[in-house]
Amino acid sequence: MTTRLELSGQGLTSLSGTTLPATLEYLDLYDNRLTSVPDELWSLSRLRVLNLATNRLTSISPSIGALRQLHTLDLGHNELSAVPDELGELSGLTEYLYLSDNRLTAFPAVLCSLGRLKYLGCTDNRISTLPEDLSGLTSLRELRLYGNGLTELPESLGTLSSLRELHLRKNRLTSLPESIGELSELRQLDLRENRLTALPDSLVRLSKLDKLDLRWNKDLREPLWLADFEALGCMVLR
């Protein structure tokens, strides 16, 4: 039986006096007022799910790298300006990593080591660029980067061969890399509220795409092939 401890929405400002059993596999501390967590948390070697979202955390201990069984980690809605490099050592992180609504100014390059991760959310931060090499994220199925300050995307984006959803709404993109046409599994592409002026012709190769959202790109010149693309069953929102 999974050992769980659910303490969400308790108004906690600290965990002093709270027992964290060594057998814990699921720990939910969502929606409290924590500014830090005790070091003993990082010694919970059986932990598989950790939810620290919606607190007041400004940093995460490098000791998080010891949680090798962790498959789901939620650090969203805090005050993090960086994450420790040791996050890239979480080889068991396969399901979900959520870093949205923090104060990140750069996409943590260490995340590119998470080759088994399926979902990555880094929305609503202050990220202006991505690492040149994203190829390590080989299992990623959903990538959410909306609400940042991205001005361009690296060509290595096209190496994310498992990607099914790419959410880029509300950035500052003026163009897309030609390599985006290599995302053969892509089903949804959200490009709302950018500054796009053109689309790469390589998009026509995305045979599995069923939703393309182009709204609120006021200077976008629609390519001639877009109507044909729509006729093949892709819902295009203009």
Automatic annotation (TrEMBL):
Instruction: Recite the UniProt keywords alphabetically.
Output: Leucine-rich repeat, Repeat
Identify one Pfam family in the record: LRR_8
**Spans traversing the lipid bilayer:** none
| Cellular component GO terms, alphabetical | cytoplasm
Per its UniProt entry, which superkingdom is the organism in?
Answer: Bacteria
InterPro entries listed in its UniProt record: Leu-rich_rpt, Leu-rich_rpt_4, Leu-rich_rpt_typical-subtyp, LRR_dom_sf, LRR_domain-containing
User: Which PANTHER family does this one have?
Assistant: PTHR48051, RAS SUPPRESSOR PROTEIN 1
Specify the protein name.
GTP-binding protein
Please give the organism: Amycolatopsis orientalis (Nocardia orientalis)
